[in-house]
Structure formats: structure tokens, C-alpha cells
Amino acid sequence: MFIPFKQLPNNSRIWIYQSNKEFAKEQINFISEKAKDFIEQWTRHGKDLKGSFTIKYDQFLILAVDENFNNVSGCSIDASVRFVKEIEKELEIDLLNKMNVSFRVGNHINIVPMSSFKKYVEEGKVTSETIVFNNMITVKEEFETQWEVPVKQSWHQKFLVN
């Protein structure tokens, strides 16, 4: 069952998918419609899940489940990945590449291969203060407080030159 993202408790489980390119308005509408439909049908062993989604910066799709209502299972997680793969195929985008790193310069979101991110750090184009997106976060409260952080406060700090 779908509920608005803001109504989910802070301990809700989340998955962050970053697109390799910005969504067009029509794509956001398409994703939103498909995500609502998916969440309305999303179950764990035949029992409804209470979930939601949000789209941030026209480039990130975040799925969420209130595990106080029902826990997700391997099968329900697999179903969500199949849903994301369908979106990828339909829109010809990449949402599942975990080897890309996302960071912000001003209002511009950059998503680059990890090797390029390392190079940008070495060249000084990315510094300890550059805002990165920590897509490894798994809980809504962390998403709201620790998703966008300076490199020096994230796992990305391992790329900083001493």
C-alpha cells in the first residue's frame, strides 16, 4: 500500500537508485505512476507492504518500506529490483550501476565512474568540502540527515590525497 514519503517513520528502510542522466518531466511522471502502481501491489509472502518513493534532483529514485508494518523479504526486494530494471529498460537509463559516484557542484549533479571521481580528487576538482551523495544509506532518517555530506564526512574520503 502506498503512502506519502513524508508520512513514513524515520526507521523505514530505503534503497537509493541514481540515474546516469537527469529525468525529463515526462520520465518523472512515468516513473511516479509506475512506482505508485508497483508499491500498491508490493507484498511480502502475500502480505501488503507499506511503502513509498520520492524522486530527488530529477536524478535519484528512492524506494522505501515501513518495516514497522511488515518486514521486506528477499522475494520482495527482488521484486523491487525487477521493477527498477523495467524502468531502466523502458526509459533507456541506468539506475543500478553502483560503480558510479555522484557529487554536486553548485546546483549541478555529476554522476561519474569511480575512476573519474578519483581523478577529479587528484586534480583538485573535488575537495574534502565537495558535497557527495552517500547512496549506501539504508534508513529514511539517515537519508534526510546524512545523504548529502562533504567528502570528508563520507566513505568517499578514502579517495582524498593526504
What do these coordinates show?
By secondary structure, the protein is an alpha+beta fold. It has 2 domains: 5-91, 2-Layer Sandwich (TATA-Binding Protein); 100-137 and 145-159, no CATH class. The protein has 4 helices and 9 strands, in the order βαββββαββαβαβ. The chain has helices at 25-41, 74-91, 114-123, 140-146; strands at residues 13-18, 43-44, 47-48, 51-56, 60-65, 100-105, 108-113, 131-133, 148-150. The protein has a 4-stranded antiparallel beta sheet. A 3-stranded antiparallel beta sheet has the order 1-5-4, with helices on one face. Helix 1 runs antiparallel to helix 2 (74-91). It is globular. The chain starts with 12 loop residues before the first strand and ends in a 12-residue tail after the last strand.
N- and C-termini, Cα separation: 49 Å
- Global structural class: alpha+beta
Give the ordered list of helices and strands: EHEEEEHEEHEHE
Overall, the morphology is globular
Overall pLDDT, averaged?
93
Largest sheet: 4 strands, antiparallel
CATH architecture classification name of the largest domain: 2-Layer Sandwich
Helix fraction, binned, reads 25-40%
